[in-house]
Amino acid sequence: MKRYYSIFCPxxxxxxxxxxxNDGPGGGKTNGDDDGDGILVPEAGKILPDxxxxxxxxxxxxxxxxxxxxxxxxxxxxxxxxxxxxxxxxNDDIPPPALKPAGSDPATTITNYVSHFIExxxxxxxxxxxxxxxxxxxxxxxxxxxxxxxxxxxxxxCGATRVGATIRVDKFIDRGTTYPRNMSTAYxxxxxxxxxxxxxxxxxxxxxxxxxxxxxxxxVLKENPGKxxxxxxxxxxxxxxxxxxxxTTVKSTFPADINEVLAASFDENKYSIAFHLRYGMFDxxxxxxxxxxxxxxxxxxxxxxxxxxxxxxxxxMKAHHHGTGDCNSDVFLGKSxxxxxxIHVWRDVQPNPATVxxxxxxxxxxNIFTTNMTENNKNVLGTTLTSKIKSMNGHIVVRVxxxxxxxNIYVLNDNDENYVVQKIFGPYQCN
Length: 431
Fold this sequence. Notes:
The protein is built from 10 helices and 17 strands. It is α/β, with parallel strands linked by helices. Strands 6-5-4-3-2-1-15-16-17 form a 9-stranded mixed sheet, with helices on one face. An 8-stranded mixed sheet has the order 9-8-7-10-11-12-13-14, with no helix packed on it. Helix 1 packs across helix 3 and helix 8 (about 330-335) packs parallel to helix 9 (about 355-360). The longest helix has 17 residues, at about 190-205.
């Protein structure tokens, strides 16, 4: 068994490559065959089969704008992490890639994707987590001409609020709205979100909680509690509070003097929620937009360091801050040594060459997947790095087998909403 917070004896994960090939399409039976358990096995060119009991699904949803991830736990409990929408267009100084599908509304694309894949699970969202308050995670407002406002609660439908207005959400989890200042004043999206949550409480009986660091009883199985004792989620960091690695003890990594915090250049990314998910021997990590920028000026600005101190060896990781140049430090990657990294790319400067180089330096066999890649950034990265990236466009789905001993990674066509498998990678065995 892995020790959860050990930093002295990390175990290496051995990648077992199927005969169908780790580097491209193949590796599956025909769509309609099963693996002996009645489970449809994905095949390139066919629609990804539904989630099934016992499997863990992690979906990186690509809209071309911001970031959104859907998780389906082994019992069918569901969680959406972020639901971005953005009004940034192709003429921006740092242009985004094309919308996926072309001309679509990102929040509607997320809604349709989630609705499709949760049908076989809980049929709703048991949890919606907002990692932090930036628009590329919670959703930016649309142009005034297309703005939809709820008649009674006066919230604007965009990003997370549009998704939640269509799909029932039982519980919202966020980093809080009062630290280090009134975030409703700092970000209109926050006050909009709170108006929406008030509506959801009335409409669905929804709840809202701030992320609780260090515990394993906040994000739990809801559809069949107790069935999968080898599944757990622990929040490692939120709003500068970090788990120490011991029991449920936490510490603040920011200065005690709030004036000192406010005197520093405010960076909402630093307040992101990070958590570690374990299912059997499979470990997944996500940490919003945590970064180490400006650590030479303020040492506490390196918010990756406290997480690196407690993170175990990781099978699959969502890259911090879209793989830009101020994140995924050598220290963090050297501790986590991820076997696969998913990078949610939505700007022309993502991912950064130095960041990708650090990823391969930490684990030369790392499998990197990006949801997008602009032609300009391919040139910036160069052929040496781009040739090593497994896939550069599409929805990315990690499907972990029952028990958590092995997993496959699928890349889905994002040009329409048919969810056809384009590439298959794996299976990968975990230790």
